[in-house]
Amino acid sequence: SERTLDTPAQATFRILPKMTKHEVKEYLTKIYGLPVVKVRTQNYMGKRIRVMGKTHIAYGKRPDFKKAFVTFDNTLADTGMGANIPGITDKTE
């Protein structure tokens, strides 16, 4: 998000709704070896959708999701956050 661009040692991840802050920190530390300082989470409700058919209208909802805002140690800010992290790809391309 735009807010995480201000802090170079911060990243935003879309995670499963049942994951906790402790699980996110443990996952990033054990799997990728990243120095996590703080994790904030926010729950989002899925958007309501309407599908127009020939004979009727169907209503539904996209699945709920959760975002994790992770703050890393300042040592990652010097390496260009994301350039040297293995296994994490940039989806903005």
UniProtKB/TrEMBL annotation:
UniProt keyword annotation of Ribosomal protein present: yes
Keyword Membrane in record: no
UniProtKB keywords: Ribonucleoprotein, Ribosomal protein
InterPro entries associated with the record: Nucleotide-bd_a/b_plait_sf, Ribosomal_uL23-like, Ribosomal_uL23/eL15/eS24_sf
Domain of life according to the entry: Eukaryota
Pfam (any one): Ribosomal_L23
GO cellular component terms listed in the entry, alphabetical order: mitochondrial large ribosomal subunit
Gene Ontology biological process terms, A to Z: mitochondrial translation
Gene Ontology molecular functions: structural constituent of ribosome
Protein family per UniProt: Belongs to the universal ribosomal protein uL23 family.
UniProt name for this protein: Large ribosomal subunit protein uL23m
